[in-house]
Structures are given as structure tokens and as C-alpha cells.
Amino acid sequence: MKDIRFDVFVPSSLDDALQFMAKEGAEALPMAGGTDLIVLIRNGIVKPKKVLDLWPLREELAFIKREDGWIRIGALTTIEEISNSFLVKDPRYAGFLDMCKQFATPYLRTIATVGGNIGAAHPLSDVTILLLTLDCEVKLMSVNGERWVKLEGLFLDKRKLAKDPSELITEVRFREIPQNASTAFLKFDRRWGHAMGYIVVAACAQLEGDIVEEVRIAFDSMGRPFPERAKKTEEFLKGKRLSGDIIRDACSKVLPKEMKRISDYRASAEYRLDLSKVLLKRALLKIKSRVGGG
Fold first, then answer.
1. How far apart are CA 50 and CA 56, in angstroms?
2. In this structure, are 199 and 170 located in the same domain?
3. CATH number of the domain encompassing residue 216
4. pLDDT in tens, the chain (294 residues)
5. I need a surface site. Which of 52, 72, 191, 230 has the fewest CB within 10 A?
6. Do 201 and 283 lie in a common domain?
């Protein structure tokens, strides 16, 4: 067995945690539920000298609130807590219910967190992919203050975020979407409840009748090793009637022109692209049904 040793710092408050990260910087890694980081440490992929245990800060950073036209979610909110929140009962946010049902296993849902899912900076990060369709913002905090950044601009590469090592993800927020809008989330893998999927897609669309007023679509990857939006496909759909023919053209003609899939030991690029088309079609049809367009 590998000799894995590191020090763990248990903060008494958020300020205590920020002071620790300011002092240790890149020498320390923050850990919430540990569903991703512990695996990386065990496999020798990362070798931290120190780990900041964020779990004691759940009283401050685990919440889901509706406030002044925003939905605010604390970074230490678990997937299980989302599944028991008002979000999954609102037809507009049905994508959260989709996501929670397909997220890993029941046990992992009790410890996997929103902030951890974003901080992992992995292509197959379910929460991140759904939040991209809601034009989400992320709150970063350090001893120097706080700042809000677009989730979309946070990713630089696989496992790499555009933030200082001393900054902690503490909250996410997004504007409430209109009543004539809804969301959908789909994931495909060999078996239900697997930790990751071959393909993950999420979408959010606002319809006036059956005309697409606004739409955002996100996949686990569009070509780069992190979740991204399918912006050319979004532009194609805007202003058009969400008919079978338009959905078919968006999936079979437009999406393949902007998406570049990879082949690996799990699946070929061709297979992944074909699945992407199928899942996007299903996501759009699901939203149309949820909004009431048939």
C-alpha cells in the first residue's frame, strides 16, 4: 500500500479557512466531501502536503435560497440537499431533479457538494454542466475580499481553474428564469447511477408559444477538456419554432460542426458524437413538454 501522508487543517470559521489558504497557498488543497480529491490522492495523481477540511463550515456555506430575483446556493450544499429543496418542485428547474436522480450513488449524493463539483474542473461534472445553462456566477473569497465570476469563464483546462490558490469557492448564484422557461439534464452511461457518464447534456430554454426566445445548451465537452456551451447551436435555435424539423437540423447539422469529440478506452469519438445528437434532441423535447408546448 502507498504511504500517503498529509496534514489536515480543520478551520473554526470561514475567516479561519481563508487565513489558512492565504498562508499556505498552493501547498494546500481545499476538500469538501472528498469524493473526487480522495480518489486523486489515493491514486497518486495529486500529492498535497496539507488539506483544508471545509466540512465544518457547512453551517455557513450549505444553503439554497430564493432572494431578490436570484437563486443562491452555498458551495457546501450537497446533491441530496438539492434533491430535497424547492428547486426540484419548480417545473422551471426540473433539470435539477433530472440531475439529482442520475448523480452517482445515494451515498455519494449525501457528501458530494456543489462547490466541489465545480472545483474538480472535470468534464463530467454534472452540477457544473447544468449551472452553465443558467448563466451561473461563482463567488470566490480570499483574505483580500470577494469577487463574482462567470462560471463559463472559470475553466482554463482539465483540473485547472482561473482563480488564485488562496481563493475558495463559497457560493453560486443565477437569475430566476421566466415562467415560460424550463431546464433538462440527461446523462448516458452503461448503467444507471454510475459516477460518470459517456455523454452529459443540459439545456435551458424560454419559449413563447413554440418559438425559442432564449436557449442555453451545455455539454461535458465541446472539444476542450471541460464543460462548455454549444453556442452555435444555441444561435441556430433562437427565434425559430421548436419543431421536429428544427430540432433535427440543430442536432444533426449544426451541433456536429462545432463539437469535436475524442476517442478513448471508453468510447469512440463517432459514438460520442452520435449520442450527443440523440441526447440534445431528447433534452429539447423534454423542455418543450415541460413548458407546455406539447
1. 16
2. no
3. 3.30.390.50
4. 467 899 999 999 999 999 999 999 888 999 999 999 999 999 999 999 999 999 999 999 999 999 999 999 999 999 999 999 999 999 999 999 999 999 988 999 999 999 999 999 999 999 999 999 999 999 999 999 999 999 999 999 999 999 999 999 999 999 999 999 999 999 998 766 655 678 999 999 999 999 999 999 999 999 999 999 999 999 999 999 999 999 999 999 999 999 999 999 889 999 999 999 999 999 999 999 999 855
5. 191
6. yes
Separation of alpha carbons 88 and 95, rounded Å = 8
Which of 207, 213, 217, 210 shows the shortest CA–CA distance to 180? Answer: 207
Q: What is the CATH number of the domain that holds 29?
A: 3.30.43.10
Residue 109, all three cell numbers = 449524493
Q: Tell whether 239 is covered by a domain.
A: yes
Let me know whether 211 and 246 are in one domain: yes
7-9 and 50-53 as β-strands: parallel, antiparallel, unpaired?
Answer: parallel
Instruction: Let me know whether 32 and 78 are in one domain.
Output: no
* Three-state DSSP class for residue 181: strand
* 1 in a structural domain: no
CB 199 within 8 A of CB 275: yes
Domain that holds residue 223: 181-291
Cut 0.70: pTM above it? yes
Distance CA 52, CA 138 (A): 20
Distance separating alpha carbons of residues 208 and 291, to the nearest angstrom: 9
Rounded to whole angstroms, the Cα distance separating 168 from 14 reads 10
Are the beta carbons of 166 and 143 closer than 8 angstroms? yes
Distance CA 172, CA 46 (A): 26
